[in-house]
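pls read this protein:
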Amino acid sequence: MSCTCIPAAIDGIPYNQIIGTVFGDCVRSKYEYVSFSLGIVGLIAYFFSMMPQMIENYQNQSAAGLSISFIMCWLLGDSAGLAGTFLTNQLPIQKLTGAYFVLSDAVILGQILYYGHRNRAMSSADDEIIQQGEEDPLLDTSPRSNSSSSSLTSYTSSSSTTSLSSSSASSSSTKSTRHLITIAAICMVACCLIVPAQAASLIDEPQRLCNEPFPVSNIGQAAGSLLAWASGLLYLFSRIPQVIKNYREGVEGLSPMLFLITTIGNVAYGLQITMRFPPVNQRFFAAVLPYLMGSFGVLFFDLVILAQTYLHGKRMVVV
């Protein structure tokens, strides 16, 4: 649906119809273009922030560096945000973006659960073999030496079988991880294709203001505000379990690029909001402050985690 902005131009710069239709924003001045560009930078950063950690987990065949509580908070926060986009009748681009974030979190959580279960199973199998080897005598001068030799042969065969099983499990995990990353990449490409398609499919209907919220019931507004606050609080406190885990166990297996890119996204997104000088009214506390809290509020914890990776001697490399 096409839309308009009032005023339609500022300092001779007309509003951008595509931006207004797709993103629900009135951009018609240099200042507003800077603010909008910061929002796009933040969005791109969020899109790619999880990729380095996915690759790190895949290369290590382990996700032990991540706190599952940290990822669960992210997943719940993004799920609350996604539900809020539907309850408050947001634009399709916002719904698609929210769905992508939930999918990315689910991929990381899937890696944690899969690698954790597989590695525990492999470790348990190795322990059983070692225990069996310790119980069976390797050298025996009694007439049972032939039996001992048979036991040793059986142990060697069992070890070979376990090795082949481990190799097969590793190959299976490689394929599974590739599939998960491929699905995430396909969703990201789909978002990139749907956005221009949405802009190209404008239909002639009575124009509305681009930055005017869609009609929402009072219950929808209240539920959307509640979910926004829940999402912001989950983002704010999500890093604490990861900070504690890093302090106790180190940062091995943790990609610092995850937090560096996320920090860039949070700074850009927070600046986009504050540059528009939102009025401090009821809507500010219901729909703006929670997102500021979820962007600027987490910067301290992200910087703490980056400092932890530096102090533990982990070089920041793009994986």
Observations:
- Strands lie at 3-4, 9-10, 13-14, 208-209.
